Every structure is written in structure tokens, then in C-alpha cells.
Amino acid sequence: MAKGQQNVVVTFLGGVGEIGKNMTAIECGGDIIIVDCGVAFAKEDTPGMDAIIPDVTYIKQNIKRLRGIVLTHGHEDHIGAIPYYTDVFKNVPIYGTALTIGLLKRKLEKNAKKCNLNVIAAGDTVTLGNIKVEFIKVVHSMGGACALAISTQAGTVFVTGDFKMDNTPIDGKKTDVQRIAEIGAKGVLLMLGESTNVERKGSSTSEMVVGQSLENIFLSNMKKRLVIACFASSNYRVQQILTLAHKYHRKVVLAGKSMKAIVEVASACGELHVPKGVIVDSVGKLLPHETLILATGSQGEPLSALKKMSKGEFNKINVGSDDVVVLSSSPIPGNEKSVYDVINDLFRKGAEVIYDSMNDIHVSGHAYEEELKLMLTLVHPQFFMPVHGEYRHQYKHAEIAKATGVHSKNIVIPNIGESYGIGLKGIRKHSNVPAGNMYVDGVVLEDGQSVVNDRISLAEYGMLVVLAAVDMDRGVIVGGVDVVARGFNLTDDVEKSIRNAVVEGVNCADFDKADIDEYARNVKKSVRKLFYKDRQFPIIIPVIVED
Length: 547
Known about the structure:
Layout: E1 8-14, E2 23-28, E3 31-35, E4 51-54, H1 57-61, E5 66-70, H2 76-79, H3 86-89, E6 93-96, H4 98-110, E7 116-119, E8 125-128, E9 131-137, E10 146-152, E11 155-159, H5 177-186, E12 188-194, H6 207-220, E13 225-229, H7 235-247, E14 251-255, H8 257-268, E15 279-280, E16 291-295, H9 305-310, E17 323-327, H10 336-348, E18 352-354, H11 369-379, E19 381-387, H12 391-403, E20 419-423, E21 426-429, E22 437-441, E23 443-444, H13 448-461, E24 463-471, E25 476-486, H14 492-508, H15 516-532, E26 539-546
Parallel strand pairs: 3-5, 5-6, 6-7, 11-12, 12-19, 13-16, 13-17, 14-15, 14-16, 17-18, 24-26
Antiparallel strand pairs: 1-2, 1-20, 2-3, 4-22, 8-9, 9-10, 10-11, 20-21, 22-23, 24-25
Helix pairs in contact: 4-8, 6-7, 14-15
């Protein structure tokens, strides 16, 4: 088939209609590649879960056509699901920049797992079957971030990845606007554009501004100990903090496993330059003005270093009136309560707390509205799909695309599980593929949604256990019914109704044919009816034994 006469097919397994869990399959001419494979984190509607990862059933069904995985950068929402799917991806080459692969390698080693990892540099091109992928430098909140120009027989698919247009980046490596413009001038069939900050007007603030604000904090607190919490993966932020600590003669104690990991990995691959002698193992006999603690926990994570400090539970570091605590981050939506709980506890301990709502101590790594316009203008795609955002973000990004010249009929707001073919004849929706959420609670749960539903029901309605012995020869209850309730008020009238319902459930079964499991199902159904009329849904556990 001649070049340009077939479609490229794009299938969304995560990262659309949501923040996080990014994963997209792109295929052409029988070959498939995956862009990113990340996690989302548990929220109030997923109680107790460690993480949420994409359903990769579609990939398993087509594993023989999978030629490789390409990673835009090393944040958890782009690489975090890979360790859970090493059995699926064990023979599949994975490509990313040095920091991205370094962080992924460490995650795999932590779980005693292996993958076929390959380090590339911005500007490199890899060939995966009949698909070629060029990695293009973009600025983000961590090093090694890239956009992707994916060349197929149908045309070029441009994936922005997470990016911003920072003209004064910490490492001096700007978004490669020239190369992006060159790719756009040659013609781009489809652009997948990140939408996270589309609601923010203007352009994002440079990371350099944070460094200036942090230096002011150093200068204003020369006699106090500094405790600074930030995302461990934000190596540019970490770099500025280490540089300032060295300048103002402070020793740095790294608090938190992930902080120690990012410093080790980023420095090993050249994305972080640690001044000689600035990092020490412990506070020891250091005076407050000689000390800086660089900690994890800016999002109020339960087991993080800062959370433990706020509770007085962190080994050998007690926060008090000699401390200035800086939260160099903004709360991720859904984390606000956890973050402010930590701030409140730190204030109670007598510390001064500086956080984002008060100072310029955090900037976003994601493009604002004007930067998104610029990217669309540079790429000038024929077709456009907004990704990496909730529906409102995608919708507004689609409106921006229209304003920059993309025809409305060539814009699609995709959902998870949807698949589209794009080519000379336009864009066509294919049948949906298996997709959605898989839940991790220590391990990947086979039926995680049922576990989530049960936990929500337990929290909202409580639990009811009914115990009864059944004479299997006569099909009757022997010795009465015991009722145990947790999480709601069990009055005498309600308990009597439950006992009657259990008897009714047993009596409804055909005792000549019924087994214990059927008695249990009948009892559960009968008891549930009592609560349905009041729209209550406690977890009902029937325990039926043979007499």
C-alpha cells in the first residue's frame, strides 16, 4: 500500500477525561506502539487503594503486534503502571531519556522485576516496526521531558507530552521550538495536546522565579532551620534548593525515600549537580542556621517525611519554633484537606509555615493558555485531540484549537476506550476496546471495582452479618438466628425484621435441591429487601452452616 493511503489508529487506554493514568496506543500498518503507561492515585471514591492503573486487555489481545513503549518523561502518571505489567511487557523494548529510564529502573529493581529498558537522548529517533519516533526536548517540571513526533505511513502524529515554554529554564535547555516548527511545516496529520492548565490565562511562570523566592526565604531566616518540602521528582526545584544551601553554608539532610532516590538517580545521569559536601546523613550536632531539611510530603501523604514531622513521629527531627517550613508546591485537586491538616499541625508545633497561597514558591510545569496556542500554531495539525485533562479541560483546549485554525470537524474529544482511525478520508470512530481502571491494593486486584464498591458501602451504610444453622433434611433453621451489625444502629425492631427475613429466605428455598450456597443467596436477597425501601445498602454477609 502506498504511503498515505492507510489510516493511523489511536486508542485511548487512559489519560483522557481524567488527570493521570496516561496511556495511548498508536498503530499503523499492523504495528502498535504505546505512549506512556502511568498511574492515577486513590481519591475519596477509591478508599484504601494504592494506585489506579490502566486496563491493558486490548494490549494483551494484540501483544504480538506491539513493537515498543515510548515514554515522554518520568512522572508517575506516565511511567508508574509499568512495574505492574512486567509480565505483559517483558519482551517489549521501552525507550526514554536517562532520567526517565533511571527512575523506572529503580522502581523495577525495588520490586525485583525487569524490563527491556533503552536510554535515548532528545533529538534521537527510534524505529519500531514501520513506525518511527523522534524525541524532541520540551521543558517540564523535571528533566528529560520530551514531545514525540511519530512518523507512520499515514502521516505524522505529534504528541506534546507535558510541557511549558520556559525561556529561562534552570538547566538552560529550552523547549525545542525550532524543531517543532520544522515538523509542523512538513505537515502533521494529528496532534495530541496536553490540556492540564488550559484554564489558566497568559503564560506560565519560569522555574527561575521560585529560586528567587526561595533565596529571599534563606535571607530572611538566617538564624532558623529551614525545612523545605517539594515533589521529589521536580529535580529543577531540588537543584535550586541544593545550590542555595551551598551558597548560604547550610548542610542538607534528605528526608524521605523518594527524595533520596531522585537525588541519586538524577545526579547519576547528569540531570542534577550536587555541590560537594552539601548533603549529610543526619542532623547530628548541626545548629539550626547550618541546617536545611529537604523532605517529601508536600501533598500531605500519610507516610511521608513531612507528615511524620508534623505529628512528631520522624526519627531525630523535631519541628518547633526554630523552624521555618516551606511547602514548595500546590495541592493537587483532592489533596487539599491532607495538605492543610499538615500545615495546621506544623503551626501547632510552633513552626512558621510558608505555603503557595502566600508566596511565589511553586510554579507549574504545564503550559498555560497562550503556550497551548503557540504549540498549536507551531504544529499546525490537520486533526487535533485534546488529552491529559478532565472533560472541561479537553473542551476548552478544543476551542483553542478552533481559534488557531483547526477545522471543527477535525477535532475530537476522546474518552477512555475509544479508538479512532485518521487518514486522507478524515477521521472515523472505531469500535470501543476493553479499557478502564484496574485497582492496586498491594497487588493488582482481579475485581477491583467490586472491592471499591464494598468499601464505599461499608463506609456509608455499614455491615451486617447473619448467622444461622439449617437442617438440610427439613429445610428449616435450627437454634435461631444471630445478627451482628457494624456501622449502623441496630434497634430491636430492625433486628426482629432481619431475623424474620432470614427465616423467609431459608423457607423460600427448595430444600430437596438446595445446598448451603443457595440458602445463603436466598437469605442475602431476603435481608437486602428490608433496606432497599429506605435506599440503604449495607454489606450483607450471610453465614449459613449445616446442622
